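Ligand: calcium ion. Inputs:
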Amino acid sequence: MKKMLSLILVLILLLLLCPCLAGADSGSGALYVKPVENLPEDFILGMDVSSVIAEEASGVRYYDFDGAERDLFEILAENGVTHIRVRVWNHPFDADGNGFGGGNCGIETAVAIGRRAAAAGLPLIVDFHYSDFWADPGKQMVPLQWKDMEIEEKTEAVYDYTRDCLARLRDAGVEVGMVQVGNETNGALCGEKIWFNIQYLMQAGAKATRQIFPDALVAVHFANPESGAYESYAKKLAYYDVDYDVFASSYYPYWHGTLENLRTVLADVAETYGKKVMVMETSYAFTAEDTDFSPNTIGEGSLVTKNYPYTVQGQANAVRDVVETVANTPNGIGVCYWEGAWITVGGSSREENAALWEKYGSGWASSYAASYDPDDAGKYYGGSAVDNQALFDAQGHPLASLKLFSLLRQGNTVEVVPDAVEAPTLTQDMSSPILLPETADAVMNDNSRQPVPVIWNADGEELTARYGGREGSFTVGGVAGGMPVSCTVNLVKYNYLVNPDFETGDLSGWTVEDLAGADELYVEDKLTDSLDGTRHMHFWSARPDSVEFTLEQEVRDLPAGRYRFSVSVMGGDAGEQEVYAYVKLDGELVGTAPMAITSYAEWDTGAVEEIEYAEGQTLTVGIYVRCSGAGSGAWGKIDAAALNSAG
Ligand code: CA
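Predicted complex:
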């Protein structure tokens, strides 16, 4: 019995891993941090908190690790954050003065944030979008006030605006460490779409920066390191002799390629053009859950690269690896986390939250943004799309992952324990005994993977009695690595044939015996002539009496039981024909089912029922085709063979 079961397990069960991960509770346990070697002393560990003023106005409060309500900037500073990044929009307000949202980040907001940062000893990275609202690879809209300007006038406007904004920051006592001339400017900026014009605007921003903050670095910022376009951006910047110090990239692990690619493309720019490089935006989800009734960009069902579980530890590991990558890239100077404090405004319904988003601009966009950006913000306005990527929980308490920045150098070696468990999926024949997997794959806190034993809430015999013998799906819960895990079991009419519908494109699994020398007898790829998929077995022969063949497959090591074999055919010009499906056991014919070739697309299915199979036998299933007499130019298609349990 044991032998048979293990045989069944090997032969029949198809164990698939789905990307569903049950994670450890947020913030519980100590954070594992592998030290980052060679992390420069002055490495920038920045945090974008552009939404904070609007968040606080909406009632959000932040707490330190001792549970005391504190100034966010102080909390960040004492946890190893070195710089604060803030976006600046020209005029994110409608004609009546209503804010567009996303923190309503005009220069007044940047000054307020800059003052708070300065009080906590943190310099600012100023991120000019040169737009009235969000600028990214999808849109680089010109500010309303500048919309009718030709490039010369617009260049002047960028210079004046940058100079005035930076002067206001300087006069407010803000320390500015870096200025970005544009945000994710992948081939567009401020409504301009050709580099000949873009470069003037960047030059104007750089010139103003050099004047007001001579010690600040000037950065250009792009997204999509995986696109292969960075080399061409850097080349154009060099060609136009744009004055900048830092070539910065966004890097969101879900979408932006591998870390190795990131390192390579940034190293190319650093080495070819002698520029500093950094990651200007990154973040990672600590949970798949949304907390503010406004959908998040990342959730459990998101079809994205997921190299880390959505846990607090997974979030920390993701960011840690980005830091390590940049620290080991030539001229790599830093990494900024994006909007680590943009949590829910705390209401218990969407309506309650929406009132705050609209009033204070604490959502990603308000309805008022429709006046400027009707197609995106105007349609989809709402709350935070990244509350599950913050470094604070929904109540404003810091997650353990916030400790990462201060632990990066020395590391934090704690016991390696499971952090998340992958939920297994079991797909098997409905008539076979259900055998749940004994282990599940766990992602450990050091991001290694290990199988861990599972204790299921029900045993296989119980489940077989309850669900066996019919098609369907169910889930069964259990515990693995101290965490809940569930297994989805799919009971299907399992097809025991190899390549049953010829989709491999060849005769894998099948044997053909051509008894009369047909002109054509092969697997064909033609959707319209297939019953299943796009491929099928094709035959045709010009001469009379030249179509006679068998197409068969041998099957061994089936579980003992009753089976049913079926196969389908269609064709024409068959003349006098003999066509049937057949089954042999240990070479002895035990069943046939006659079939008929009639006309195009008229599929006929032959089925041999009630095949009694005993352990150790060899089962052969096949189809015999003979066209003779008046048959000349006989042709046909064979597809959709199936050997199922008779149930
Ligand atoms: Ca949300």
